[in-house]
Amino acid sequence: MATFKITMKDNSHEGIYQLEAAIRNVGEWTKFWGGPDDDMSKAWAESRRVMFATQGSSTGPKWPGYTRQEQRYWLPIKRWSLGVKRIDPGGILRWNAKPQSTSAGTHEVLWPSMCVPNAKGYVWSVQGNHVECGTSIPYAQNHDQGNGSYTRKTSRKKSGVVTVPTPKRPLVRFGDKFIDDVREHMKRLPMNMAGAKVGITGAELSARFLMSVGGRP
Question: pTM here?
Fold first, then answer.
């Protein structure tokens, strides 16, 4: 999961005061974040689609490519399971022979759980000022943190087994695109939340308005 923290900044003390006062009066941000079918959830899902398509580089350092062990012991099983002899480039963490596809594969689980609002495992939970976004698929944490491993026989003719460690491929880094979407959503305020008028009401203040967004997995 990922959690969100918003920090307001402005070049003038007056602007900071106005924005902080508005936030204090709100009480909670449920309407701003919305539900799984609303704009912020859709922006999150789109940022995850770009993340998979760029192999993680849209949210930070690119994911590591397949290790030699993965190439030798994991990819053959993946191709066999998908019923293909070749998987197009960019297939890391996708269960799809055409990994640049914008729709889920027949038996794909992880990708839709992060990229398709309301799909099985998709998480967009808003409670007051607390927002959780991510996936509830259990093995996703192994990929995100680089934990766990895959064990299989070395070959059909040999009785030994081999353990293939799971490389770290972060899934819940926010990335610039999602941060920009939140920033733009903020700029579309004012709106009424919990009976308080919130937003940036002056054009000059709006032009100077800056927002930094940080989070943690």
Answer: 0.75
